Structure prediction request, 301 residues.
Amino acid sequence: MAESTVFAIEPYMLQTRTRLEKVLREQLEALPQRAPRLREAMLYACLQGGKRVRPTLVYAAAAALGGPLERADIPASAVELIHCYSLVHDDLPSMDNDNLRRGKPTVHIAFDEATAILAGDALQAMAFRLLSEPNLALDAQARLQMIHLLSSAAGFEGMVSGQSIDFDAVGKTLEVTQLQTMHSLKTGALITASVLMGALSSERASPSQLISLREYAECVGLAFQVQDDILDVTSDTATLGKTQGADQALNKPTYVSLLGLDGASAKAKALCDEALAALLGFDERAEALRGIARFTVARSS
Prediction:
């Protein structure tokens, strides 16, 4: 497909972020008033800003197949709930021990460690409860596939194993292929689930389109992590909204430590190009997906 103009991704991301946050706030504020401190921590964990890249991918994948955005609202919310849960737990003293997230104190700092653990647990469970609601306007088979995708991405087959490998790798030297495996689990699995869940919400995805979208998502997921590693070195705490240099301080292996800044930048660009190539069979409705691939390697935070 010829690229005569570059899709304006930032207005699109603002639009989808606003939509997602409205739906997410409605769902969270509908929670019963029992356990008020826990409820407050859940809202704090989810409604303190953020790029919302994963739910944006849900919406963009649905749009690429001509699906209505309202069908993507709950899948997008479920993905973001899982992402927020993972951040709360990653920041804990027993894990990365971070004090700052999205420019604000992390949940265990703003509340306490026990409340942070429980908030993460509750957010994870809430994601699957939303997807399994009987009155959800999605085909039951599509919902079952989404639940399978999301549980795999969030569990041993995805983020949890990735975080475990990351934890064990501190102070060690990894090969690039080992680092790629780690990040394909820790970061890439949820990004891939986001794209495929968006496609499934359209109820129009062919098997070949799902294969292409998976290829796209795997490249974007890895590119996202490579850019994170670059920004950990080149950016600053105020811009990132989290502690700059945290990976270096923990002596974690990164793409920058293995490839250097120039090598990591070249890797990110190559992954972006691969992601765009995976979308060659899609028409202009996939422009948002193309824009997100470019944004992933151009972002400064």
